[in-house]
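Reading is simple: the token line describes the chain's fold. The lines below illustrate.

. . .
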Amino acid sequence: MDLLRPLAERLHALAPSCGHSRLVAVDGHAGSGKSTFAGRLAAAAEGPVPVLHLDDLATHEELFDWTGRMLEEVVEPLAQGRAARFHPYDWNLRRFLPPRVLPAAPLVLVEGVGAGRRALRPHLAALLWMDHPAQRSWARGRGRDGPELAAFWDGWMRAESAHFAADPSRPFADLLVQECPEGYLWRKPPGGAPSQGPECHRE
């Protein structure tokens, strides 16, 4: 059995938070592994689990000013039990694309920097924080994206620091998720023991 399955089952067992859906945020610094973790968590669950990437809502000019689009295009329809239709942003073309459907599934993951922000927390069933230090996360992101995006990363780091200074997510996390050499551990903050014992999730 996939050892992320217990976490997926735990999230499925939560009370619905947005209509009939359990909206679960995966937040953390850029480069902390949110997208990979969210994808693996979704794959470990029984039944389809849609994943919304906040990179699809942010833009070059609005790195963190996407709350209105999130509430209007995603949260509002899900709260009414309807599939969401949001316009994903193309970072190469610098424009929004035709709408994409996000099903109103029992469990929906939202991953991205700021997923656990103040305006969204009332609609969340749980907030997971990727507990990876900022500087190490940013260094990994820079290495992944290459020198051609160095200027973007300089601006991003300033914007992310300002965002979390004004609207932190980690203090409100229900679980802290840590990478280990062969998978993940998760624990309740602060200082809780790993909820699945000493073993990591192994691929």
Q: What stands out?
A: Helices lie at 5-12, 34-44, 67-79, 134-145, 150-166.
